[in-house]
Structure formats: C-alpha cells, structure tokens
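Discussion board: Methods & Data

I've been asked by a reviewer to show the raw model output for two of the constructs in my manuscript, not just the figures. I'm not sure how much to include, so I'm pasting the format here to get opinions. Each protein appears as its amino acid sequence followed by a line of discrete structure tokens. Is this the kind of thing reviewers expect to see in a supplement, or should I convert it first? Here is construct A:
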Amino acid sequence: MINVTPVILCGGSGTRLWPLSRTGFPKQFLCLTGNESLFQQAAQRLAGLAQDGIQVAAPLIVSGEDHRFLASEQLREVGITLGTALLEPTCRETAPALTLTAFAAVQNGQDLVLVVTSTDQTNAKPAGVSRRRWRNCPKQIIDHLKAISGTKNMIFQTISIIGLGYIGLPTAAVFASRKIKVIGVDVNQNAVDTINRGQIHIVEPDLDMIVQAAVVQGYLRATTQPEPADAFLIAVPTPFKGDHNGDHQPDLSFIESATKSIAPVLKKGDLVILESTSPVGTTEQMAAWMASARPDLTFPQTHGENSDIRVAYCPERVLPGHVLRELVQNDRVVGGMTAQCSEAACRLYKTFVEGECVITTARTAEMCKLTENSFRDVNIAFANELSIICDKLDINVWELIKLANRHPRVNILQPGPGVGGHCIAVDPWFIVSQTPDEAQLIRTAREVNDSKPSWVINKVRLAVTKYLKETPSKKIKDVTIACFGLAFKPDIDDLRESPAVEIVHMLASEGFGEILVVEPNVALLPAKLIGETSLKLVTANNAISSANIIVMLVNHTAFYDIHIDKILNQQIIDTRGVWL
C-alpha cells in the first residue's frame, strides 16, 4: 500500500520547470507531465491510482486561481477532493514552490510524492531559501524516493501473519480491513478452520465483526502452511524453557520454527518483521536462521542496505480488551537491522497505524519492550508488597492507596493476587537472564509478584482454620471454596501466566472439598486444571449459594454487580478490592 500526496503544478508552454521524468526513476513512480490543458488527464490518472488500491491524499495545487478552479472541477468529477492551494502569480515562482512542497512532504513521512508537472527545468530560487538548500532540494527528493524504491517492494500486496493468537489475529484483521490480502498461518488447525468460517477463537471486543467481514470479502484467509507474500510478521509465543528450574531462560523455539517455516517461500525484496516479545539479539538470530536456510538470498547482517531481505523488529504494545483501537492509535517502535529495513517496516505499519512510527535499532527496540513491562512490574510489586504490609498492620490498603494518590506526584497501582499475562509476568526475566548480576531491582520485583499467590493460599488456609473452629462438626474435606476469576486481568479470556489459575491449582492440592470456579469468559477449564476432580466450573449464583469461603481473584465487571448482602455469611478473601 502506498500513500501519495499528488502535487499538481500548472505551467504554460515554454515554462522551465523541474521534472522528475529525467531522474531515472522506476516507471511506476514517474510523474505525469503536462500543463493546464491536461487537468483531465491528471484527474483520470489519480482516479486510476485509487482504483489500484493506492491511497490518494487531497492534491496540492500550485497555480493561479483560474487554473486551480479548472483542476478542482476535473478532480471533483472523479471523486477526488481538492487539498491545500498554493497560489502563485507566475509559473516561474510556482516551480520552486512545488519543489519545497514536495520536499516538505517527504520530510514529513509521506511514502511518495506524485508530482504532476511539465517537462523543463528551472534554477529559480525562492526568496528566503538558502542557495545550498535550494540546490539540494531536487536531489534530496529524488534520493528519498529512490531509497523507497530500493526496498524492492513498495506495494505490499500480500501480507502473511505467522501466529494467529491474541496479537496475530487482530493484526491480520486490521491489515485486511484496509483491503490488503492477508494470509494467516497457525499450527492450530481448529483456529485455522474457525477463522476461515469467519469466526474467532479468542475474546476481543469487535474482532469478530472485522474478521467476518475480511473473510467474506476475501481479504483474510488462514492456513497451516506459509505461502509466498511481500511481508511476513511473526507473532508467536516466547515462553520459558520447560526445565528452567527457577532460572527462567527464554524459549525461542517457536520463533525459530516460524522463521524456518517461512524461509522456503521467501523471495528477493521481502520484508520480515518479528513482533514477539524477545530477548535482546533475537532479531539478529532470526536473520541468521533465515540466512542459513536460504544461502541463495542475502540478509542485512552481511549485505547491509543491499540485502535481498529486509528484517526488522516491532513489538506490539496493546491492552487486551482494547487491542483493535490501540493497534491503530498507539505509537510503534520500529527497529530495523538497517535504515532501509526500518523504513520499509514503517511504511507497512503506516497502512493502518495513526500513531507515530519511531525508528531505532533492532536491539534497542527489543530492549524497549522489555523495559516497558519491567517498569510496570516494579510498580505493581510495590503495590503488592504494600498490600501485604497493610494486611499485617490491619490497614485497608485500598483506602490507603486512594489517599496516597491524592498527592500530585504519587500514582500507586492497584494490588492483586500476583501478575499474569504473557508480557509483564515474563518479559522482566528476559532481562534478568541476560544480565543476572546487574538486574537486581527487576529480579526482586519479579520475586515479590511471583510470591503473591502463595500469600493468597496462606490467607485461604487461615480462613479455613477459622471456619472449622466456628463449625466443629465440619472437616477440611467438607469446606467448599469459590474462586472468582481465572483470567490474568478483567473481562478477557486470556489465562496465560495467570496467578488466578496458579492459585486454583494450588488450592486443589490442599485437600479441601469442592473448589468452585467462576469465570464468565471461558467455557472449559484450562488444561492445567483438567483432571483435578475437586474443581468445577459454575455460575456466580451457584458459587455464592454453595461456598463457605469466597476468594476474589479477578475483578471482572460482572462481579461488581454481585451485591455484598448476598455474601455476608461467607468468609471473603478479596485480592482485588471489589467488595471492600
């Protein structure tokens, strides 16, 4: 997808104007030559670009008032609205105005400036512009446009998303909503079949409508095997190794598998972007895997800007439940292995991203994502530790935080039963694993948050002990505990690294009676909990009527509708402050 800002210059016969037509520019990027008598041809060409899927911005007209009126009439006939008018009294003065307009447009991030002009050249220099800057304007514009064309694939006609989970599927849907062909790839056959029916296998507001429309219109298709495309985005998990034994080493096998799966279908000019949260250096490792699999192609680590394949890293930074909005509105950090890799990645994301695409190196971009989540983890650890302190001192931590946050420079987060999700609960360990001696605070914060589920379990044990003392006829196996919530955060179905799941799993091994689980966003218990005979997924009303002890683990919106007077007879352990 190309976004173009046409600049139409009106010049009479014999006027000496600067052309792009003599620059050796690729034919598909050549300007239309002409003067005021060819407005209709210009309008028709712009309409043709729009029909070809090129996003045409409102044209800039550099002309006198009469020519501007004529151009406006012709453009309106083909459905193109006139943009800003730069009015100049003579053609000799419009030539430099055009050059500066085009120069400003490319400097401001336009993918391409399509210039409609006549065919001669002028050396006219506008007042107030240094001679050096004026002399360099055409060269800078040409160099910029040639650099764009040098990325081999200006137009991303087909995009492949590897991994159709909580990030991959929304990303694929947003690209497809821009009328770009998207091929989604996932090893989960059920996910593939579900998507191809126009349905979704995850919970995310409004995603179902976008996916259905994209599939019905033919812009989104899912498969289990990679196919040729112009750009590949890898969004697969990066968990810990199964035998980490407390050292939390990252498992890059999913990235390696995805990389090697697309290698056979890569062609000269393709762009490969890694979106998975990864340790520093993973993008370079990905490029090395591709180079090993495809020795017939060149890659940035050996051929720099002249490589056949462009490689970049761009982490997602979205909030579950708001993914579609944040994909579009949030800024993106783009780290290419070379400048042109970064530029190509930015142009791809600008297909739908309204925020700023900020360019840096691949290693810095990788570290940026880890830093963002480590910062949040440290702040959550403060809140969680504060909740433990307040419990010991018999202080309502929720009231305390509300009061402390009245200070204009204090913003304490809300405590909970721990930290979950595939980002905050995982990413800080990637920093610790690479710099164990230096990441002291980051490690401590992780340990505080990882220990919170055990603290919750101890609170449940104390509640059970109190209940048995108050009802001597009961034994531990007669105690029914209701756990509200399994997701790692409110109003989603994502259970990855959820402290609530860990707490329920630990409770099932304590020898209590039934453990009733209330999770309105899932239909089945997760694999980790299947096989625990004491566990049962029930409704909120069933749990309240049957439980002796209630544990609030996730503050889903639906739980706020439960009136406190319904649960006055049970002991409550509220880790989220819903009923406190």
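Construct B, same format:
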Amino acid sequence: MSAKQCCSFSRNEIAPHRLVSSPRLLSAVVFLGLLLSGGFSAASSTAAKIAKTSTVGISASVSVCPVSIGFGETIQCSISAAGEIDTYTFTASPGDSVLIRMTAISGSLWPGIQVYDPDGALLCEGSFLLTAQIDGCMLAVGGTYSIKVFDHFSGTYTGDYYLYLQRMNNPANAVSISFGQTLSGSILSPAQMNTYTFTASPGDIVLARMIAVSGSLWPGIRMYDPDGVLVCDDTTPPTGQIASCTLAAGGTYSVFAFDGSGLGYTGDYYLYLQRLNNPSNAVPISFGQTLSGSILSPAQMNTYTFTASPGDIVLVRATSFKLRWDYLWPGIRVYDPSGVKLCEASNTAGTAEITSCVLHAGGTYSVLVFDYPYATKTGDYYLYLQQAGVPTPVSPNGTISDTTPTYTWSKVSEATQYRYELWKGTTTVYTKTVAASVCGASTCAHTPTTVLSYAAYKWRVQTLVGGAWSSYSAYRNFTITNLPIPKSPSGAITDTTPTFTWTKVSGATQYQFVVYKGTALKYTKTVASGACGAKATNCSNTPTTVLSLGAHTWKVRAFVGGAWRAYSAAKAFSVSKPRAGFWESPAGVEFYVTPNQANVRGFAIYVSVSGCGSYKITHSTLVPISNNHFSFSGPFYGSGSFVTPKKATGRAGLSSFPISGCGSVSGGPWTYTDAIWRDSSQPSIVSAAINLVEILGIGDLGLPNPYYIAEVVAP
C-alpha cells in the first residue's frame, strides 16, 4: 500500500500519548486521542456545505514577437543584440488607464519600457531589475499607441522577456467573481496577470485573498476602482491577502492576480472574495447552536451571520474533524455590522476558540471560518456560537413525566449566583435564586420541591457576574405527562437484545412494554417499579429474547392507583448489521467493514515516532464480527463494538511492535469513541478477489505478513 501524504504529525502541535521503544528506548507519539469535545449544544444541526467554489483557468496563448499587443494579453520576445529596441502597438480610447509589465527570464537584460502617444510623444516609462511595470498610465486621446521595450541598464544587455498589457478602467478578458465565491486560476507565463471583476456599492468593505497551490508562484493581489485607480494591494507570501479594503464609490472594481516576487514565477492558485459589511452566501447561526461545514478548496472562507444586542459577549469555537497534517487547522474571525474585524483566533491543535468577544453595537455580525495559517488545507469542521456570560438551559426539555424536575444549565465562569424562572402560559409559577455552589465542572443543577401539574411549561435562566445580572437565556420548553415516555432503543441499532429505557412516572408501581415487528407482537414484558430506582428519572429493563433483523416498534404504560394507564406513543427502531464500507474516527483510527458485513479489514492507526518517522500501521487480515464486536491480538492489537450501524467504539495499541529503523515500539491501549461510517468504499484490492474470498469463506488474502506499514510524509 502506498503511503498517504496526509498524516505526519509534529509533537509540538498536540498533546501526545507517550510510547516506550525497546531496545532503542525511542520515544513515540500516537495520535489516537484528542476527540471532538465540549461546547456542542444539544440543539445541533447540520448546515449545507457552504463552499461556493468554481474552477476558472485563465490562460491565453502567448504570441512570439507580434507587431501589436491587445489588452489582457501576454507576449514573448527577445532583446538579441546590443542597442535593440522592440516596438509594439495597441489601440486605446480617450481616458483609458493602462498597466504594462515586463519580466526578463534569461540573459542579463534589465527590463525597460516606455509608452508613446499617437503623435510619438513619451507619456510613461518604467524600469527595474527582472520586472519593470508601468501602473496607471493615463491616455488622454484615442488612437494607436506604442510600447518600446529595451535594456535599461546600459542598452547593451540582452535576454528573453515576457510583456503584459491591460486596461485598468475597463479590463479585457476579465472573469466575473461574486462575493463569497472561490475561483481557481493559473499564472502560466512570466509577467502575466489575471483579471477579475466584481460590482460593489459605496462604502463596501471587501476581503480578497490568493493562495498559491503549485509551482513557485508568490501570490500578488491588487484591487482597482472603476477608474483604474489602485485602492489596495498585497504581495505577502505564502498568502496574498487584502484583509479589509474600503470602496468609496459604487461600480465595477477589478482584482489583478499575479506573481508578486517579480522573478517570473508561475503556478496555480485559488482566489476568494467576500464583502465584510454585508457578506454574501452567509449561513445564519443562533446562540447555542452547532453547525457543520466544509472547506472544500484552498483560499475558501465560509461565512456565518448572527444577530446581537449592544453589550453582548460571545464565545465562538471551530473544531476540525481530524487531527492530521494535511487536514483543516481552523481559524475564525468575528466582524461587526460595518465590516470591522473585532476578534480572531486560530489553532493547529484542532480547535480555535474566541472565548470572549465584546459586541458594542446591535445588529448583524458575521463569523468567517478558514484554514490557518496558509489557507491550503481542506476539511470538515463544527462551528459553535454562544453568548458568554449567559447560561444555556439544558433540562427539563421536551416531554417528561417527573413532576418535580431537576433544572440543569451550563456553568458560567466567575458567576456567583444563578436565577431561573418557570412559566405556565403567561403566569410565573416560581423563581429560584441559587448560589454557584450548585455547579459542577461544566453544569449546574437544582431541584425544587414544588410539585407541578400535568401541563406545558417554559423556563429560562440568568447569572450574576461582578454584581450585575446578565440577560435571561432563551426559553426552554417542556411538557409533563402522566404517561411514561419511551427513550431507547430508537433509530438504527445493532444490539439484538437491547435494553429498553423509559421515563419514570410518579406513583407508578409497575410498567409494561410491548414490542412489535410490523403488526406481529414479539413479546410483552411487565416489570416492577424497582426497574427505576429510588432517585432515578428513567427506568430500564433488558429482556433476553433475541430480536431478528428488521424494523420494530415498542410502547410502554404505567400501573398507577390500581389501574393501567394508556400506552405511550410508539417508538420505532430497527436492528441492523454495521454498514459495509469505510469507517473513520477523528482520533486517528480507520477500518473497513466487508461487503457481506461479516468482517473488518484494513484496521489502521497513525503513528509518529520521535526521531524516526511517521507511519500508518494496518492489520491486513480479515477480522470476524461476532455479536457486533471484533478484536485481534498480537504486537498490533485492536478491537471495536458497533453501537449503531453507523457508529463504533473501541481501542488499539502496540506491544513491542517492530518498525524498521525504529526498533520495537510499545504504547496504549488508546480508546476511540466515535468511529463513524463514512462511505461504501472498500480497500484498493481487486474487487473480484475480495468477493471471491468472502464467497468461498477463505478468510484472509494469503498475505505473507498480517501487518503492513506505510511511511507517511508531511506535505
């Protein structure tokens, strides 16, 4: 198996697990930790992948020593003799403003350029080592102009060169780019500049950035107003970025992308444009919400908007799905309604967080998510937004049966008190003020003794920090019912003898639940209230009857006051095998479930050994799945349990595992808790061979070694 160019890790980037190497006593780190954690609201949703990426390759054929040159064209020629002057003509209109750029690529030629009007009068000139440029030569009259090209140093040097011409007030061969869009392009020859146009309104503040992805290209980016006047530029490697450019007038603006080194470098690049005061293609996000997104191309930035009040303090967190060298390192910025940047954070360890960003005015704010620091990597991420200083109500929520519910909310640092209020319709039922001592590490909880009636309620919470009460949180709604509520199983599961869980009902002495497959009753189970426990809010029971694969429903009822109450609404679930295909954990574990869903193959971990190298270690033989569990032993060992058809947990480790040039490496076991099914692909082995092995039940593919190791090289 060839090495993946993706997964080498620096020990300075994230906290490592320690390995002990023998006999060479090498120290190694394995990145099987650092799971996605913390801060994701229960009200999580998945946003559309908001990349607006298009591919536009700008290239024109390069003429060799033509008589004339057109706007937006690059030509090639030579000064081949001492004293030689090459002349080119072009046609212009009155008021045109032109840019001319000349780059020498061989010999000792020192570029010099001059522009002459139709009457032969010198208008503009420029010279410099390697690249000479005339930027903004105003042409008062219409007609045929001429460009003279020569060696400016002594008039005797010679060499090959490229020459580029463009009209700045109305550029030719320009490509339209919209706010929120990412385009790709190429600088194919020295001196070449690619031109893009966009329409803006007076007072707009825009961001533009250019990222080189191949060749030796040094990104250069310039922005011109509708009259061809330069308003902003940047040539800072490796990312050319105009972070904030205020546009005074409305109209059509142009962006020039080029090699900013002046050395004639070429290569491919991506260009991104966004309006900061009124961003386009933005996705709304609310306080307490977590959204998922993807950076699908270099240079791309994804934009989100939210509404805030004066004095609000917000927390913003972006977490990358994976911790690998070639995967997204998140960066985030917050902008105010006028497009001014307020706060920024970035991190190479998977999570970037702005813990406290003060918003002085009310209005619509924006958040930009991007790859840090070079904007070349792509990947999936989660974005979380919350009001700092305002607690988030957690439970009760939804339908419950507890008449004295426990109220739970998020902890706020430096809070000394909390106050929550309960409403029934438009009537306040009660208000409770409690000390911060009711809080644990991340949440707070309090249980009033007031018995509530069966009805619909809503509640909210606020905090006291620095002697001042914060704003109240948003309301959390719940309804109390005298029917037990089925909780699990629900949805797709793999367990054929699942545990049934439901909410506890006050005064109930027995519970009864029934399970159906279609219309056929599979079994009825009656249990005493001891299934709930004295202080528990839920009840559970695990029947021994084995359920077959397929869709099922179940419902539950309570025995209260000497009579059976009505059954709850039915809860649906299905018993399935784990999905066939590729599975992956952000903790650095991946494997495949075979097409017949009976085996695991290609179980792999990523290892970086200090002073030795980075490796992907793969267990090559088939591992049977039994009762939704698999395991293998040896110097490289691993196991897993399928919690649902699309989620698995397990562990892996090394025990005196030999790596050539590294010695014998040991460490672990390391736990992974969130391996998920990604797609239906299979390892890159001939499909017919895979199918034949599974049909014949041969087991493995007869590889001479149960493991194979691929060296991983950092990009």
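Answer (T.O., handling editor elsewhere):
This is acceptable in a supplement if you add a one-line summary per construct. For B, something like: Residues 687-696 form the longest helix (10 residues).
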